[in-house]
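Let us practice reading a record.
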Amino acid sequence: MAPPMQAPQQPRERAVGLRAGRYFGVPVYFSPSWLFFAAYIVYLWSPVVRDAVPTLSNSASYGVAFGFAILLGLSVLLHELGHTVVSLALGLKVKRIVLMLLGGVSEIEREPQRPGQEYLIAVAGPLVSLLLAGVGAACYPQLEPDSVERFLVWQLMVSNLGVMVFNMLPGLPLDGGRLLRAGVWRATHSQVTGTKAAAWGGRVIAIVMVLGSIALWYGNREGGMFSLLLVTLIAIFVWASAGQALRLASLQQTLPKLHIVDLLRPALHISADLSVAESIRRAQEAQMGAVVVVDGDGRPRAVVSEASVLTVPENQRPWTSIADVARPLEPGLLLRDNLRGEAILEALRTTPASEYVVIGKDGSVRGVLVTADVVRALNAASGPGAPSAPTGPWGERTERPAAPWEPR
């Protein structure tokens, strides 16, 4: 399955498990939770191996079951590589592939721009699983009855068919949900409408999964509790991912209306030789939400980070120059006041920072853009259930220490 576009993050790659190489330039990781999945496969399949191949010892049956878990993981990897190859062919960068307890995800860095792209990426994974099942079906009759090879080929054939069928269910984050989104998008000419339809499909699937597993458990309670918990865990993941897609749809509706000027904090202009204590006093007195260091001609030279100021002990602030805690303005920290929507996020992705100075056409300072304020605006646009973020200095709620510019 391939999830919706990830939210803008620092470009630095973060390890999420055991690195398993790069394929087509994309790093692949096995999450620690995959080991839990492998252990579950060994526990579940070792009795099946003994029944299918009676000549095996108990220890050998565990080894074969573990081998099946490895082959199944490789099958899921090939499924995800199907998404990756098509994404790269369409010019969409893939950050990484992660194999985990609940399957695999290909982290595509931005959304497809057309429903046709969405369709091609979504269908690639299930087609790979179908191809693997077909190869297994062709090989199966050629193998010796009651052999380990025949057992593994049969199980992989059935498993890949199961992976394909499950992923074709019409709800996000499954591939069938992406196909549904592409179809509704094409019919309505609205990506947002397609996302909402597919997300609600995912929520229906999650409910059906839980109710179905409970019904099966009541029919056969022997050894079924663990399977019930596993299915419930997958259903929770599907429900949560569908909710994330709904918030993304709300964000897609609101993002074009987002203007950088509406997010600015008023900034106090000071000279570089002023002390930290005096800068704080003046900012509090003028009720400014940010501080910018300017030269003798009033041109911005540095922006002062709240976090950097807070690292200076109060008894040292009268003797510490504000220049010591200010960040010089490299090109990416100086933004124009005409940015809107996705252009704002692209600027933050290009040069990650906590504060940016925003200027007008004449080069004058319009204010300071604080990354936390952008996150807060996006979370508010995403609707109820979105993760909370700290408010600005004059907000009604905060989850951080008092900002240095706030009047005491």
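A brief commentary: The first helix runs from residue 32 to 52.
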